[in-house]
Design a protein that fits this description.
With 328 residues, the protein is an alpha+beta fold. The chain is built from 10 helices and 16 strands. The protein has a single domain, classed as Clavaminate synthase-like (Double-stranded beta-helix, 4-Layer Sandwich). The longest helix is centred in the C-terminal third of the chain and has 17 residues. The relative contact order is 0.21. The structure holds 2-oxoglutaric acid (AKG) and fe (ii) ion. Belongs to the clavaminate synthase family.
Length: 328
């Protein structure tokens, strides 16, 4: 894990940049600003930019910035992301995350996720406590690659912590720390797996199917080409894994999935994000999750802003009919 702790002066510089940008914006819409943030990020403190560029080039597994500015008069944690979207809560924090993230990659979003917003809210929502989405609380969010089903999934998923009063941990496993049996590793590297949209993608499953099938019809093989769970350079491989949204083509492949899950449990690490911490998880080298916690729904709940980053937005344009940062 590489971490930078900002000095008070650097924090003030980031806050001043964000305030200046916000003062020139009439209606806050990150999508309108997203083409500008890469240029604006040139004005982040030099030490921070150098740190982030180094993280990108060295493919740092987990990159943490501590000491980013969080509004001292931050509004109460919204009860669910849709309320956050409606009220526009935490705008300066969204911009700070966009500015830092733009040094690592190009921001993008999903039409099927959180109403197509570029910056997401991660906070517990009533009724979702046991769901397989980031709005859950009472159950652990199992270790996963973000948006495992898609060829243009993020190179990074980034999370900026606004509140975390119960010190709930974000969990992760680095492929470099995984001690997989050689036959499991070999199987995982073969094109014997299918990956499906997770439950945060509204309608994604049904869109890909007829519309007449039950939701668990995702375990049919249609629409999802087989791929491997481990790929890329042998000396520094990449990982694609989400036990809840993948399947093996045969018994051996299913067995390899279960063996990998057991190995994850032995290699799991955690980071407890504090307000002002942003973590950038390399989505090709690391699977991440979250520990369970008891939601409060009193305005003091854990609250993160989330941003997906791809190293080159043209990978996305190249598979689309429209030049949009929002994947349809
Ligand atoms: O809440 C966390 O720490 C991680 C949640 C998560 O996996 C996500 O938002 O993608
Ligand atoms: Fe995630």
């Amino acid at each position: 894990m590489s971490r930078i702790v900002l000095e008070a002066e650097e924090r003030a510089q980031v806050a001043a940049l964000a305030d200046e940008v916000l003062s020139g914006v009439e209606v806050w819409d990150p999508l309108q600003l997203v083409d500008d943030v890469t240029g604006l990020a040139e004005r982040l403190p030099l030490r921070l930019r150098e740190f982030l560029v180094h993280s990108r080039i060295s493919e740092s597994d987990i990159t943490v910035i501590s000491g980013l500015p969080v509004d001292e008069e931050l509004v109460p944690t919204p009860i669910g992301w849709d309320l956050a979207a409606k009220t526009g809560a935490g705008q300066r924090e969204e911009l700070v995350l966009l500015l830092c993230g733009a040094v690592l990659g190009d921001p993008f979003g999903w039409a099927t996720q959180q109403d197509g917003r570029v910056v997401h809210d991660v906070c517990p929502a009533p009724g979702m406590e046991k769901s397989l989405t980031s709005a859950s609380s009472e159950v652990a969010l199992s270790l996963h690659t973000e948006d495992v089903h898609h060829p243009c999934r993020g190179d990074y998923v980034s999370l900026f912590c606004l509140r975390n009063p119960d010190a709930v941990g974000t969990t992760f496993v680095r492929i470099g720390a995984l001690d997989l049996p050689p036959d499991t590793r070999r199987t995982l590297a073969e094109q014997r797996f299918r990956f499906y949209p997770d439950d945060s993608h509204v309608g994604a499953v049904l869109n890909a199917l007829d519309g007449n099938e039950p939701a668990d019809a995702r375990v049919t093989d249609r629409e999802y080409d087989p791929g491997s769970a481990i790929f890329g350079p042998a000396e520094r491989p990449y990982l694609r894994f989400d036990v809840d949204f993948m399947s093996g083509a045969d018994d051996d492949a299913e067995h390899a999935i279960r063996t990998a899950v057991d190995c994850f449990a032995r290699s799991v690490e955690r980071v407890v994000l504090a307000p002002g911490d942003a973590v950038f998880v390399d989505n090709y080298r690391v699977v991440h999750g979250r520990e369970p916690f008891v939601p409060r729904y009193d305005g003091k709940d854990r609250w993160l802003k989330r941003l997906n980053l791809i190293r080159d937005i043209r990978r996305l344009y190249a598979i689309s009919d429209t030049r949009s940062r929002i994947i349809a």
